[in-house]
Design brief:
The chain is an all-alpha fold and 194 residues long. It folds into 2 domains: 8-58 and 110-192, no CATH class; 62-107, no CATH class. The protein is 71% helix and 0% strand. Helix 2 crosses helix 7 (133-152) and helix 7 (133-152) packs antiparallel against helix 8. The longest helix is centred in the first third of the chain and has 24 residues, at 8-31. The relative contact order is 0.15. The chain crosses the membrane at residues 12-31, 43-61, 108-127, 172-191. Keywords: Membrane, Transmembrane, Transmembrane helix.
Length: 194
């Protein structure tokens, strides 16, 4: 059993920024290697932690569906089926049910703009001041994945379910533009550090 790539474009959306950041960080490290105090192992270790964190952040987005299925209405058929499979410890079938029924879940705790606004603030803070490549990778992996989903999602209104009013397509594009600029700023911060 191996990992199958469902959608090559999605993989490019997710892995492309990570690979670019890692490449720039390696080139910058190589360019400064003439410094007598420079040491390769911390650079390589930092990049490895960044990549691991990015992968963890990517999969953290799936917590949405798990949370929804375990904490939702007991009369909901999908929730009932997932809970039954988990009680039988049949994780693969439970995950398969969650994958097949992703489209029917609209009010998700992670996939909404309020969570995104909070994550963007946390992301800038973590990337600029924490010094943890693992944490920076997790935040950036999660934000890049959610950004790629929000950009490609035709039903943009489901991202705003936590707000009391409807948002127009133009407002949505404005939020996506601001989100993209903050992501770009965070990626530049990641590329600058070793």
């Amino acid at each position: 059993m191996g990992v199958r790539i469902k959608n090559p474009k999605e993989t490019l959306w997710i892995a492309g920024p990570l690979l670019f950041v890692l490449l720039v960080r390696m080139v910058r490290a190589y360019a400064t290697r003439l410094n007598p105090a420079f040491n390769w192992p911390p650079v390589l270790l930092g990049n490895a932690f960044l990549a691991i964190g990015w992968g963890l952040g990517y999969f953290l987005a799936e917590a949405d569906h798990v949370f929804y299925a375990t904490m939702c209405d007991p009369q909901d058929e999908t929730c009932r089926l997932v809970k039954e499979e988990w009680e039988r410890k049949n994780w693969r079938n439970a995950w398969g049910i969650l994958e097949r029924t992703k489209g029917e879940r609209k009010r998700l705790p992670i996939r909404n703009m309020l969570t995104i606004f909070i994550l963007l603030g946390v992301g800038i803070w973590v990337v600029s001041s924490s010094g943890s490549m693992l944490a920076s990778g997790m935040v950036m992996g999660l934000l890049v994945r959610l950004f790629s989903e929000a950009v490609r999602d035709a039903e943009y209104k489901k991202w705003y379910w936590v707000f009391a009013r409807d948002f127009t397509p133009m407002e949505h594009r404005g939020f996506l533009t601001a989100w993209g600029l903050v992501l770009l700023f965070s990626l530049v911060l990641l590329m600058r550090g070793f």
